[in-house]
Amino acid sequence: MAFPSGLVELIDILSQHGVEQAVICPGSRNAPIMLAISRNTAIQSFSISDERSAGFFALGLALHSKKPVILCCTSGSAALNMAPAVAEAYFQEVSLIVLTADRPQEWIGQWDGQTIYQERIFGAHAKQYFSYSTQAHESSDEIWHRNRIANDAFWSAFSAPQGPVQINIPIKEPFYPEKGAVLPDSKASRKIQKWITPKSLDVATKTFIQRQISVSSKIVITVGQFPLNTAIQAAIATLMKKGIPVLADSIANLSGLAFDSHDLILANTQSWEALQPDLHIHLGKSFVTKRIKQFLRSNDKKQEWQVNPHPQALISDPFKGLQHVLEIDEVDFLNELSLLNFSEKQEAYFQTWKMADEIVATKRSTSINDWNELGIFQKIAQKLPSSNAEIHVANSLSVRYLNWINFVPKGIEVFSNRGTSGIDGCLSTAIGAAQDNSNLVISIIGDVAFHYDKNALWNSYVPNNVRIIVMNNHGGGIFRNLEGAKDLPELEGFMETQQVFHAENTAKDAGINYILVKNNHELLQSLDHFFQESDKAQLMEIETNSNLNAAALAKYMALFKG
């Protein structure tokens, strides 16, 4: 039959490795790949028309399942539209296997339709690149080569640090099997298994840690973006009790266990000297705000470690003082640390952080009743579910508000696309993560990010466990809070992305229940039932004034500057 060779085997091998989900973008050149995926009964397939949204939808699936997800598109600019999601997956270390259909090599650069240069199209943002032949060379070497590529692609994506890979697949016509024909059986599919041994502490590393701890009296641990991990949480709680201050972002998933008000504490620069460590230990990825980076960068006398069992090839040194990278499991490291004895001065150092945190906690507990985003986030926080829910927060102001107030209930996992920190795809990621998910999936997103990604709702996969909160200040409100930007005459015309749209029509088109809120009374009334079980997804649009938001935030931040 007329069907490109090797595609059934490719998908079969990925399936044998445990790949269970695929996102397919409609097209003609990729139709044979689509058939090989959709007719594999072990793989759940989703059809998403917008390639940019599809990429982030796949990212959400992978974040939820913790398994690689196939992402498939046709030839031409389709793959370019997936680039933002691929870059995000690379920096978040999420496994995507991107199958890009292509024209045959001889037609590249020959003005053939829907043809661009697709080899290594994602550049450094794909961990590996593979070219997969579908020529009908049924030699043993050809079969062996295709088997090897399929296995290599899976392990490249799945081996730590995880990330996206591209398999470019040139396909000649005809694309489709004859009417009524079945796809060919898989021939000689061979799964190659790797055994991955966790990296643990050896005697030399333990000795180094013990020696350095014994001569340090101001030890601080910082935790950037990190998935919810109960073993990490338990270890952090133990270290806090032993007098080690732990500073964590809202996206570190340590709510209620660590000092999460570091950005407000450090707003008072007069306190920096007393709070500076002599040993700084970092876990996880990046921080949302720059103040903690500035604080730690200003101390060139400290010793600095990074604990990362699977670092990328390039050294990450965001605090400009890195001396040791410990490639060991974070839980093993923290548990080893908790067994050690610390200097008597360490307790005094811990109390300095604790007192600063308590002062901030008193100030930020002040109820804000004026109609502005800060007060709105406070009221939403009071109504959030305490269990069986997860939060997907968009970039710009939304994720920062989570750091500025005590927003996240203990045990609720927070996700955010902080790999590249872009506004593209924030909603699509949440919709992808909501699939086959028993949790309530709460997306908190600004109006610009929402409209930029509203094709996230242009599909038939928006389940009733989704709750979307759109903070509509009719523009990019974050720029009104940035020194230098807020006073520019070009602010309104070129920086704020001013827009007059609402989300109502988008919600109606998607079959989602829509609520518009314009004051505190309507907000509290709507929040009473918004997070309850429903037969449809819910979208609440909260309309505010950007100038009033900026003024309220400036007044609030002034409380902490000392």
Automatic annotation (TrEMBL):
UniProt keyword annotation of Endoplasmic reticulum present: no
InterPro entries membership: MenaQ_synth_MenD (IPR004433), MenD_middle (IPR032264), Rhodanese-like_dom (IPR001763), THDP-binding (IPR029061), Thiamin_PyroP_enz_TPP-bd_dom (IPR012001), TPP_enzyme_TPP-bd (IPR011766)
Keyword entries, A-Z: Magnesium, Manganese, Menaquinone biosynthesis, Metal-binding, Thiamine pyrophosphate, Transferase
Molecular functions per Gene Ontology: 2-succinyl-5-enolpyruvyl-6-hydroxy-3-cyclohexene-1-carboxylic-acid synthase activity
Keyword ATP-binding applies: no
Cross-referenced Pfam families: TPP_enzyme_C, TPP_enzyme_M_2, TPP_enzyme_N
Cofactor(s), by name: thiamine diphosphate; Mg(2+); Mn(2+)
Catalysed reactions listed for this entry: isochorismate + 2-oxoglutarate + H(+) = 5-enolpyruvoyl-6-hydroxy-2-succinyl-cyclohex-3-ene-1-carboxylate + CO2
Top EC category: transferase
Pathway assigned in UniProt: Quinol/quinone metabolism; menaquinone biosynthesis; Quinol/quinone metabolism; 1,4-dihydroxy-2-naphthoate biosynthesis; 1,4-dihydroxy-2-naphthoate from chorismate: step 2/7
Rhodanese domain boundaries: 26-107
EC number: 2.2.1.9
Cofactor note: Binds 1 thiamine pyrophosphate per subunit.
Gene3D superfamilies assigned: 3.40.50.970, TPP-binding domain
HAMAP family according to UniProt: MenD
Function comment: Catalyzes the thiamine diphosphate-dependent decarboxylation of 2-oxoglutarate and the subsequent addition of the resulting succinic semialdehyde-thiamine pyrophosphate anion to isochorismate to yield 2-succinyl-5-enolpyruvyl-6-hydroxy-3-cyclohexene-1-carboxylate (SEPHCHC).
Subunit structure, interactors included: Homodimer.
Name of this protein: 2-succinyl-5-enolpyruvyl-6-hydroxy-3-cyclohexene-1-carboxylate synthase
